[in-house]
Amino acid sequence: MAEAQVQAPQAAQATETIFANQPKLFGKWDYSTVQVTDVVFRDYIAVWQTKAQVYIPHTAGRYQVKKFRKASCPIVERLVNALMFAGRNCGKKVLASRIVRQAFEIININTGKNPLEILVQACINGGAREDSTRIGSGGQVKKQAVDVSPLRRVNQAIYLISIGVRESAMKNVKSVAEVLADELIAAAKGDSKSYAIRKKDEIEKVAKGNR
Fold first, then answer.
1. DSSP letters along 129-147, please?
2. Which of 127, 106, 129, 125 is nearest to 178 (CA)?
3. Taking residues 30-51, what's their average pLDDT?
4. pLDDT tens-digit profile of 190-202?
5. C-alpha–C-alpha distance, residues 134 and 148, integer Å
């Protein structure tokens, strides 16, 4: 009996991943303290998995090859990639990474929290839970409210955050990093100052009318 009790903790330690150096994003932000609070997002926000714990958000993975593979892409890298949308920003990943790094520094100064936690919470809050789809054929088409999958909610949150940041930063005295920090903090709180939260509420309001 005593031997079984001794072996149990050893087995638990064997399954736990141990790194020679604990990986930290940009050498500063620790992954071990970040929790995905909503259980439905655990498989779609890649932040706690071993492969998602990267030093820099540039894995050079071919996530577009197979359906749903992008769910395993580190969530910070997905944000960096989203900032590269629009023609003149295409391919400037070093610039986008620098913007995210500066934004994370600002978030830490303003909130005192790990910016990875703020990003995860912003992704959870930023996507619409209910949306409308077109149903029907042969000329008769009506809109029907439908539930949204967790992966689409994450995709939509990242997309809306990047669109909001790009629009807000245009002809603004604030830098893109400052605007991104403000957007993420507001989205994490569920505040309507965030472009993503406003669009989410708008989509859900339309869907409610189509039930």
1. SEEEEEE--TT--EEEEEE
2. 106
3. 86
4. 888 899 999 999 9
5. 14
